[in-house]
Design a protein that fits this description.
Elements lengths: L1 E7 L7 H12 L4 E6 L9 H7 L3 H11 L3 E5 L9 H10 L6 H5 L3 E7 L7 H13 L3 E2 L6 E2 L2 H4 L9 H21 L4
Parallel strand pairs: 1-2, 1-3, 3-4, 4-5, 4-6
The chain binds flavin mononucleotide.
The site of flavin mononucleotide has 14 residues, from helix 1.
Length: about 190
């Protein structure tokens, strides 16, 4: 059984990226489980808070989910041609304390997908993640690019992925990434 943890980088109730993550869960192949993690409840990073109170519960939970997964799926929106602050803030918290970062991220397979209502489907945001995952020592999987543009058309009003071609692509993406994760993970 291959275990992947997926996280959407949007807190919005009607988030297209959360909808894309749900589609990834639905379309993942047999033998692959995707646990949906959340950035909700993670405070703004403040080193004074960390020093005084330690790691917040929402951060500790997501860290453990990452650490016990064969792979991590980041489903990222794009804000101002880069990573939304709330998502980057969450990953920054997960990298604390630095003595524990290797357990959470080190050698862990990671795939990135994202969707936006515009034409470029989070291309620049996904690119902006690359130095982050490199710094964290993760192993990115690049085989199938997944820039889901025109979110308002490919998802219906309930957030279901209704575009047949995109459903097929998400299924191929999940099969490919799960294979990579099961072959290269370093999970204990
Ligand atoms: C502050 C802000 C900046 C944005 N900048 C971009 C952008 O650079 N490129 C883009 O494609 N969409 C941009 N958008 C639109 C988002 O792609 C859109 O709001 C999308 O629905 C966000 O993802 P979500 O549906 O998962 O919340 C921006 C939205 C906000 C709120």
């Amino acid at each position: 059984m291959t275990r992947i943890v997926g996280v959407s980088g949007s807190l919005r109730r009607g988030s297209f990226n959360a909808a894309l993550l749900r589609a990834a869960v639905e379309l993942a192949p047999a033998g692959v489980t995707i646990e949906v993690g959340t950035i909700r409840g993670i405070p703004l990073y403040d080193n004074d808070v960390e020093t005084a109170d330690g790691i917040p519960p929402a951060v500790a939970k997501l860290k453990d989910q990452f650490a016990s997964a064969d792979g991590v799926l980041l489903v990222t929106p794009e804000y101002n041609n880069s990573i939304p602050g709330v998502f980057k803030n969450a990953i920054d918290w997960l990298s604390r304390p630095s003595s524990d970062a290797r357990r959470v991220f080190g050698g862990r397979p990671v795939a990135i997908m994202g969707t936006s209502p515009g034409r470029f489907g989070t291309l620049l945001s996904q690119t902006a993640w690359l130095p982050v995952v490199r710094t964290l020592g993760m192993r990115p999987w690049y085989d199938i690019p997944m820039y889901v543009s025109n979110a308002g058309q490919v998802f219906d009003a309930s957030g279901a992925l209704v575009d047949a071609g995109m459903r097929e692509r998400v299924a191929q993406f999940m099969a490919g990434f799960a294979k990579f994760a099961s072959e290269t993970n370093t999970r204990a």
